[in-house]
Amino acid sequence: MIKLIASDLDGTIVAKDGTISERTKRAFIEARESGIQIVFVTGRPFRYLTPIIDAFGGMGKVICSNGAVLYDLEQDEVIWSRTLSAATARKASEIILELEPKAAFAAETTKGLHLGEGFADRHHNFGVQAVLDLTSDSIDSEGIVKFLARSPHLPIDKFYASAGPQLAQLVSVTHSAFDVSLLEMAHVDIHKATTLHEYCQRLGIAADEVMAFGDMPNDIEMLEYAGHGYAMSSGHPTTLASARFRAPSLAEDGVAQVIEDLLK
Questions:
Q1: DSSP state of 132
Q2: Who contacts 205 (Cβ-Cβ below 8 Å, separation ≥6)?
Q3: Burial 34-43 (b: 16+ CB within 10 A, else e)
Q4: Kindly report the CA angle at 202 between 11 and 255, in degrees rounded to 5?
């Protein structure tokens, strides 16, 4: 019996235009009405949850920033966060710069986004943000939930393969985008599955009672944790290779199809 459905957002149920299809909305709402818990699990910070707020209002909890934040949509509040120190981020940046001297950095904190020189280009609009200063006391007081490193020319899989092993004892490292070479780092003990497991324990739900959906490498641990982990057929090859099950593509409303079959 499935008691909880955990779903990634971008590339899984959220299309490139930032929308969720009516079929997918209906499937999740019907699952919730049937008594199944819903939790969305995303690399996005809690400030950028517009697609699910538009689609579902205040339904459920959201695991944000690849597991560093548990956010309550209904109460509009952070339940807890697990942060990275500025000193650790500085050390990570030094290691990365030895491998990729042209890397640029940014940090998401519990209060906002801090951008380093060269991180954003004219194609990106991040809204209001602060300048990244990893020597500042203020950034430690805010708490870094995700540290970002961007390469202007290395393909993401090469960037990840070279930096990941060097950083493994310092931070958790993943990536979640096809179109930008971006490493996403958090507290060394944090990824989507650790926070999902903790949340399930609070509810008394076992891993084999969880159905999960994702498409990118930052979803792998979650799909491996869930007794019913589905990689989107439109997802990253590494994610597809690691998942027990495969869902049809986002364009085919793959998540909705699997939930509809579950509810029959």
A1: -
A2: 3, 4, 37
A3: eebbbbbbbb
A4: 25
Contact yes or no for 187/84 (Cβ under 8 A): yes
**How are the residues of the chain apportioned to helix, strand and coil, as percentages rounded to the nearest 5?**
40, 25, 40
pLDDT of 123: 43
* pLDDT tens sequence across 14-25: 999 999 999 999
Distance of CA 98 to the CA centre of its chain: 27
- Give per-residue pLDDT as tens, 76-104: 888 889 999 999 999 999 999 999 999 99
195 touches 64 (CB < 8 A):
no
- What residues are paired with 4 via a beta bridge? 37, 210
CA–CA separation, 193 and 177 (whole Å): 19
CA dist., res. 24 & res. 30, Å (int) = 10
pTM of the model: 0.87
Angle at which helices 22-33 and 254-263 cross, to 10°: 30
